[in-house]
Amino acid sequence: MITIKGIVVKINSNLYKVDTGLDTKDYKAKGLFKFKKTNILVGDKVEVNGEVIEKVYPRVNEFIRPPIANIEQLIIVVATTNPKPDLELLDKQLIMAEKNNVMPIICINKIDLSDYYEDIIKTYEKIGYQVITTDAKNAVGIEKLAVLLQNKITAFTGNSGVGKSALTNNIFKETISEEGETSEKLEKGKHTTKFVELYKIGNNAYIADTPGFSTFEIKDVLANDLDKSFPEFIPFISECEFRGCSHIKETKCGVKKAVENKKIDQGRYERYCKFYEQLKEGKKW
Ligand SMILES: Nc1nc2c(ncn2[C@@H]2O[C@H](COP(=O)(O)OP(=O)(O)OP(=O)(O)O)[C@@H](O)[C@H]2O)c(=O)[nH]1
Ligand SMILES: [Mg+2]
Ligand SMILES: [Zn+2]
After folding, report:
1. Ligand 3 mean position to 220 CA, how many Å?
2. How far apart, in whole angstroms, are the C-alpha atoms of residue 42 and residue 33?
3. How many whole angstroms separate alpha carbon 105 and alpha carbon 132?
4. Which of 48-52, 221-225, 265-269, 280-284 is the least confident region?
5. Is the pLDDT reported for residue 112 higher than 90?
6. Which pLDDT value is given to residue 188?
7. Is the distance from CB of 54 to CB of 44 less than 8 angstroms?
8. Which residues have a Cβ under 8 Å from the Cβ of 13 and sit 6 or more positions away?
9. Residue 33 — φ and ψ, nearest 5°?
10. Which of 30, 67, 74, 244 is most solvent-facing, going by the fewest CB within 10 Å?
11. pLDDT at residue 33 above 60?
12. Is the distance from CB of 105 to CB of 148 less than 8 angstroms?
């Protein structure tokens, strides 16, 4: 038997569906994993031999909600309306992406329903984030999105109803997958997406249609480090009088001055203050 590398794309009780590039089929986990309690996740890079998974490679990142590993890119979806943009959630997801070494991209969807989204684009592009706009209903902006997905494992996240599944379905209509997959695979009626699965959209390109990433599990964010997750604050921190300045109550503060001079967005700063207090109080997100 020869050993082949692959990626776990789906888990069904004790069967692990692995795509080896040659084919995609179910494998069992070697008994060893059960004793070691090595839980195998969707997204895991593995070695298979015969009918079993023999080895799980170290993960770049792993998430609990949803249970998935090795995500390289996160498309954070915000709807222009219905539901209205939740910038607190957006900022928390950006922090979460940064903490897990995932490249974030902001996708403003449902641009057919409202024209009021220029401010969001301006605010976040100025910081340096990539922002794209889409209308999943009329398949607008999908080609651009599809290009960003090449050669990566990408997950979508964002509030329920923003259009994650609609965007994913559109990608499938754009992409002629090698295995002749159709968008039907993703039709789950009108139900909220509950399961985690990687869908192949090309060589080395997968998308995960997930229920969205929870920000509850940001274990590593400390209030005093929060400013480092706001990239636009960083150039001004050196102008703060005190090392370890929280940028909240201090008077001689470079960040606060930059907010006054409109070099930092007021809304982003307010959300920073809110998150800071929440983290100080030990509140969970
Ligand atoms: N007008 C319009 N409707 C959209 C667009 N994108 C999605 N919708 C609709 O919005 C509703 C919610 O879309 P979904 O794709 O199910 O949202 P979701 O983010 O997957 O939601 P959950 O699975 O609950 O997390 C559906 O009725 C979609 O048809 C869009 O760009 N424009
Ligand atoms: Mg969905
Ligand atoms: Zn400061």
Report:
1. 21
2. 15
3. 8
4. 280-284
5. yes
6. 41
7. no
8. none
9. -65, -30
10. 244
11. yes
12. yes
Tokens of 83: 């539901």
User: How does the average pLDDT of the chain come out, rounded?
Assistant: 88
pTM above 0.85, yes or no: yes
Q: List the structure tokens of 27.
A: 């494998």
Q: Which helix (H) or strand (E) holds 246?
A: none
Q: From ligand 1's centre to the CA of 164, what distance in Å? A: 7
Query: Within 13 Å of residue 25, how many CA atoms lie on the same side as its CB?
Result: 9
Q: Label residue 196 by pLDDT band (50, 70, 90).
A: confident
Q: What are the CA-CA distances from residue 216 to residues 93, 227, 285 (Å)?
A: 10, 19, 5
Token digits for 66? 């949803």
Q: How confident is the model at residue 32 (pLDDT cuts 50, 70, 90)?
A: low
- Taking a C-beta distance cutoff of 8 angstroms, is the pair 212, 155 a contact? no
Beta bridge partners of 55: 47
Q: Is the CB of 229 under 6 A from ligand 1?
A: no
For the chain, domains (ranges, CATH) are 3-58 (2.40.50.140), 68-208 (3.40.50.300), 223-280 (1.10.40.50)
**Neighbouring C-beta atoms of residue 108, cutoff 10 Å:** 24
The predicted model gives 98-118 an average pLDDT of 96
Residue closest by Cα to atom 30 of ligand 1: 110
Which protein residues have their CB within 5 A of the ion that is ligand 3? 240, 245, 247, 253, 255
